[in-house]
Design brief:
heterodimer; A: 494 residues; alpha/beta; Rossmann fold; GMP Synthetase, Chain A, domain 3; nine-stranded mixed β-sheet; five-stranded antiparallel β-sheet; 15 helices; 26 strands; B: 79 residues; Non-ribosomal Peptide Synthetase Peptidyl Carrier Protein, Chain A; 52% helix
């Protein structure tokens, strides 16, 4: 197998009438989906050479996925962008990517026209219903598994977004592993949380395709209304979720998880942030039989490189392992930094050879032969069972009074407290202070007293800020930079 | 000041660009986002002494000013 389209073609052939992608007002079967993707692919192939970048500026919808896979039928690669980001940032993405075409949802056409020349801006709905099979066959014959499938942009610490390029073979490697290791049954029914510009969606889309299952595109607004979300998951008979821990935490904290709810849900997977054990325990109490799997990985290694199936009990204050490498993946700890090797590796950042050379480096343990590993910038260690423990970002490791402190560990403790809904912390190096920020009912004094029972004195934050809410990034994670900016704005005024 | 006027004032402080007077699909139309909503909930608590938790609410409660007024009233009735 060398093309992810083999899964789509098999699903369309064997389950043409089954639901593929659903949302409240629209559903599409595998047969219809393949047809639309081929139409879009024919349109693109008539205009662009193979392996051209195709920018996707659409709302999360079945048609958006058809546009992505349409690009793949033309042997081009897709880049979905977050339509809510400032246009200046979109412009930065466009200048790195140099897309050959942008496929827009109707309401984003004007934005598209401001970003790109008029003859490259296409409204997806207007693409004609015609398939040029000979052209698609030719594109497929020329394809090799090293061709790019997508480029996803992540925030660079310098402010210029980095485009992580991922090939077909990395996704094939990942999805074949995931479907087997996660015991996904044929016809499984996912509810999607991740936006398509965030790579947790890769599992949602391609595992669904591989298993001829279906993916329910949960409206974003449902995540604000836990009661409605539960109702939706039950009505749609969702059996599998792969969400960021924040989404699972919000649902647990809202009090809507009650015994007997979500009878179909039997697989709860999470990735993208640290999963607080307190959240896990709240879920386990309500759904004790479900399969819980914690996964870890940056976009550069195709979503996931280690996994841990929850096989024992944890106290609320414990740190959950991220486990062991996925099949065909190697994890190295070099000076405590998690480094990854294997087919999962991105060939690099698109159009950014210098940034690529900084993060994708020769394996220092194998100087005899070229072998590239990816330096994640995350710190890790093995526990006594040989499981990988995530300790936090390399830049979240600080030194104070001679002690090395992982802010991730402080956050883990903060998030285990009962009056805290969500917390994070940062280090203000200029004032040598650790600052804790959280939402929840506990007042600052209580938090200070309670966290003292868990953490050594040198790790306790020096100041606390209780907030009504914590800003999130586009993918739903806590936006730490913004948290810090808000706290500092507030106090610089006084 | 009547409650409706007071509520409109509070809302316009959160999002001055939205026409809260006439809009009836604030949530379902995607006009207000999660941050707006959290601020609205906090403001209802502060201004109207209505304590609501996210587990209790439905999108319909926030689609319009009238829906929010109804929510405030029903919370006051429960007490």
């Amino acid at each position: 197998m060398r093309n992810v389209l083999d899964w789509l073609d098999a699903a369309a052939k064997e389950a043409p009438q089954s639901a593929a992608f659903d949302q409240p007002d629209m559903g599409i079967t595998w047969g219809e989906f393949q047809k639309r993707a081929r139409e879009i692919g024919s349109f693109i192939a008539g205009r662009l050479p193979a392996q051209s970048p195709v920018l996707i500026l659409m709302e999360k919808s079945p048609l958006c996925i058809a546009a992505m896979l349409g690009a793949v039928y033309a042997n081009c690669f897709y880049t979905p962008v977050d339509s809510s980001i400032p246009e200046a940032r979109m412009q930065m993405i466009v200048s790195v990517l140099q897309p050959g075409m942008v496929l827009c949802g109707g309401r984003f056409k004007e934005t598209g026209l401001r970003l790109m020349p008029e003859n490259t801006v296409c409204v997806t709905d207007d693409i004609p219903h015609q398939i040029d099979m000979p052209v698609l066959v030719k594109r497929s014959e020329e394809h090799i598994d090293n061709d790019l499938l997508y480029v996803l942009f992540t925030s660079g610490s310098t402010g210029v977004p980095k485009g992580v390029a991922i090939t077909h073979r990395s996704v094939i490697d990942y999805i074949e592993w995931a479907c087997e290791a996660l015991c996904l049954p044929s016809g499984c029914r996912f509810a999607s949380q991740a936006p398509f510009y965030f790579d947790n969606s890769v599992l949602d889309i391609y595992a669904t395709m591989r298993m001829k299952g279906s993916l329910y595109l949960t409206p974003r607004v449902d995540f604000l209304f836990p009661k409605k979300l539960i109702k939706t998951l039950e009505q749609e008979k969702i059996d599998t979720v792969f969400w960021v821990p924040s989404a699972l935490t919000a649902l647990a904290n809202s009090g809507v998880l009650t015994p007997g709810c979500l009878p179909q849900l039997c697989r709860v997977f999470f990735c993208g942030e640290v999963m607080p054990c307190r959240t896990l325990n709240m879920w386990k109490k309500v759904l004790p039989e479900a399969d819980y799997v914690n996964m870890y990985g940056p976009t550069e290694i195709t979503d996931v490189c280690t996994w841990y199936r929850v096989d024992r009990d944890f106290a609320d204050t414990d740190n959950l392992p991220v486990g062991r490498p996925c099949a065909n993946t190697r994890i190295l700890l070099i000076d405590g930094e998690i480094c990854v090797g294997g087919t999962c590796l991105s060939p690099g950042y698109y159009n950014a050879p210098e940034k690529t050379a900084e993060a994708f480096v020769q394996n220092p343990l194998r100087p005899q032969i070229p072998e590239i590993i990816y330096r994640t910038g995350d710190m890790g260690e093995l526990n006594e069972r040989g499981e990988l423990m995530f300790l936090g970002r390399r830049d979240m490791q600080i030194k104070r009074s001679g002690y090395r402190i992982e802010l991730g560990e402080v956050e883990c403790a903060l998030n285990s407290l009962s009056g805290v809904l969500l917390g994070c912390c940062y280090y203000d190096a200029s004032r040598e202070r650790i600052v804790g920020v959280y939402t929840g009912s506990a007042d600052e004094k209580t938090v200070r007293l309670e966290i003292k029972k868990i953490l050594p004195k040198y790790m306790i934050p020096d100041e606390w800020h209780r907030r009504e809410f914590l800003p999130r990034t586009g993918s739903g994670k806590i936006d730490r930079l913004q948290v810090r900016r808000e706290v500092e704005d507030e106090y610089s005024v006084i | 000041m009547d409650e409706r006027k007071e509520l409109l004032e509070v809302l316009s402080e959160i999002r001055e660009d939205v026409d809260f007077e006439d809009e009836t699909e604030l949530v379902s139309g995607g006009i207000i986002d999660s941050i707006d909503l959290t601020q609205i909930i906090a403001a209802l608590d502060e201004t109207f002494d209505v304590h609501i938790t996210t587990g209790d609410i439905e999108p319909e409660n926030f689609n319009s000013v009238d829906a929010m007024l109804e929510l405030i009233h029903s919370c006051h009735m429960e007490r």
